Amino acid sequence: MANVINWFEIPVADIQRATKFYSDVMDYEFTQQEMMGFKMAFFPMEGEGIGGSLIQGEGYIPSMTGAVVYLNGGEDLSVYLNRVEAAGGKIVFPKTKISDEIGYMAFFIDSEGNRVAFHSLN
Q1: Smallest Cα–Cα separation from 38: which of 5, 70, 62, 15?
Q2: Count of domains in the chain?
Q3: Is 1 a member of any domain?
Q4: pLDDT given for residue 55 in this prediction
């Protein structure tokens, strides 16, 4: 069965600032590209997983409302969450246990004003 989600885009006002924020928090290297008038920075992806990007351009407005993207928090989301504020974001919902089976989540506001979440099993 195919995944319900194939791709996600996180809107940003400043692609360089947002790329630095996510690089600092998650220790990722982004590939950047301009495509159809949009500036994009691609999250790393292995195999046939779900991909996504940061995107700057007309019609893409950062927001604290609407759908929430849950990023992979790795083995323990605390590692990434502890870097959020130093990188220019704000923790708005601390690491919280959902259940033994599902794991943990936490919400933060990124450098652009988006509400985003981390998820991990530990």
Answers
A1: 15
A2: 1
A3: no
A4: 99
Hey, what are 103's tokens?
């794991």
Contact (Cβ atoms closer than 8 angstroms) between residue 96 and residue 105: yes
Separation between Cα atoms, residue 86 and residue 113, nearest integer Å: 15
Phi (first) and psi of residue 74, to 5 degrees: 70, -155
CATH code, domain carrying 98: 3.10.180.10
Q: What percent of the chain has pLDDT over 70?
A: 98
CA dist 104 and 74 (Å) reads 11
Strand order from edge to edge, sheet including 70-72: 70-72, 115-120, 103-109, 90-99
pTM of model > 0.90 = yes
Q: Provide the greatest CA pair distance for the chain.
A: 44
- Whats the size of the chain, residue-wise? 122
Place of tokens 């933060």: 108
Q: How far apart are CA 48 and CA 63, in angstroms?
A: 28
